[in-house]
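Figure 6 in text form: structure in, sequence out.
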């Protein structure tokens, strides 16, 4: 083994040279450094970190000028892919052709009896629907319209709430424009709504929209607004409630404004695709009927705010959990007020021209619906006779 002049092996000498001296260790330890030295070191580190970050951001911006970010490019590619798939389905199966000209209506019954979960069934102007779809997987068009209303939607969702009713009312008004014969063809509809589960469930039930098929999109910036498109024609409408129906404070008890749900005049939401409301329509953006006991609506708004902002409720010495019975009573009263008037008196719609549907950014984004490929197949005149033979 090779030894150094001091009697150590070369390996030991190398290890000792690598170890710092006590003086060096003390100078590197912030506890042993003066306050000025520590601040100087931290400043130097901050400057270095800032320089690195600036370089990264600059490099990214330069790169972005030459090409799209990978995620954006991916969804752009997927959009083109599924537009082509939809066009192919239209050509092959007539899946998005116009509905049948002759449909048997008023052949189905609807449960209108009030009950604990649907107490306002006696209201005169609740939204109701007659709808056609296909008679099963790989099925043909039903030639009879099925009927449903709020009680069915509430059962599907699990409870009664304002947004459930609002969404149905807006959909009813838009469907009056899309299907002038009054029969909603659920094979031709797709829709968008805000992020609330109440709106999503109501919209999904009415339209048959599904994320998997690209016929349901959740757009948080829509707030309480709804967008429906008829697939075969591309005709698109948007709807919201009128000022005076909204049971929330425009500025909450925490002093924060609700950006996604502004006062419904020029804009009804924060959605980027929304067209401005024509000024000629402004005068009709507010309810003209008289709200009996408006102080109850104000109280409803305040209780909702305290439930949403517990810190503010604590400041006001309010326990929202002790106000639940009052909250439910005020909600029922509010809905009775709204649906004691025609839907047009409380809700409004406007057309969205030249709107191009964007498929939801989920996977699988869009696949051809197997229950639509045979919807135009001919019905046998008497299939039961052939089965007897």
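Output sequence:
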């Amino acid at each position: 083994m090779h030894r150094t002049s001091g009697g150590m092996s070369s390996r030991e000498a190398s290890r000792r040279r690598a170890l710092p001296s006590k003086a060096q260790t003390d100078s590197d330890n912030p506890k042993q450094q003066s306050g000025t030295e520590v601040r100087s070191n931290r400043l130097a580190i901050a400057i270095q970190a800032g320089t690195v970050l600036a370089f990264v951001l600059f490099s990214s911006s330069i790169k972005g000028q030459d090409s799209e970010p990978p995620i954006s490019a991916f969804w752009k590619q997927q959009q083109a892919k599924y537009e082509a798939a939809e066009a192919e389905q239209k050509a092959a199966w007539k899946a998005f052709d116009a509905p049948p000209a002759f449909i048997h209506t008023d052949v189905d019954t609807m449960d209108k009896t009030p009950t604990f979960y649907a107490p306002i069934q006696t209201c005169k102007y609740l939204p109701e629907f007659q709808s056609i779809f296909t008679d099963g997987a790989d099925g043909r068009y039903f030639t009879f319209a099925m009927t449903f209303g709020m009680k069915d939607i509430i059962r599907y969702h699990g409870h009664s709430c304002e947004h459930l009713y609002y969404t149905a009312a807006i959909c009813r008004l838009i469907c009056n424009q899309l299907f002038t014969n009054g029969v909603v063809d659920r094979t031709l509809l797709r829709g968008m709504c805000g992020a609330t589960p109440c709106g999503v469930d109501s919209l999904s039930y009415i339209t048959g929209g599904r994320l998997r098929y690209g016929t349901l999109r959740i757009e948080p910036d829509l707030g309480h607004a709804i967008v429906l498109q008829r697939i075969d024609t591309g005709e698109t409408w948007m709807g919201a409630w009128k000022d005076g129906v909204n049971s929330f404070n425009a500025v909450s008890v925490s002093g924060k404004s609700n950006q996604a749900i502004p006062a419904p005049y020029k804009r009804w939401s924060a959605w980027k695709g929304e067209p401005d409301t024509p000024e000629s329509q402004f005068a009709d953006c507010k309810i003209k009927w008289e709200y009996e006991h408006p102080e109850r609506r104000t109280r409803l708004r305040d209780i909702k705010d305290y439930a949403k902002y517990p810190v503010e409720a604590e400041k006001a010495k309010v326990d929202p959990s002790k106000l639940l019975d009052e909250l439910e009573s005020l909600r029922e009263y509010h809905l009775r007020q709204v649906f004691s008037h025609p839907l047009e008196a409380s809700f409004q719609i406007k057309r969205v021209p030249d709107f191009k549907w964007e498929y939801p950014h989920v996977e699988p984004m869009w696949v051809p619906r197997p229950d639509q490929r045979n919807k135009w197949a001919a019905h046998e005149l008497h299939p039961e006779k052939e089965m007897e033979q």
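Caption detail: DSSP finds eleven helices and eight strands in the chain.
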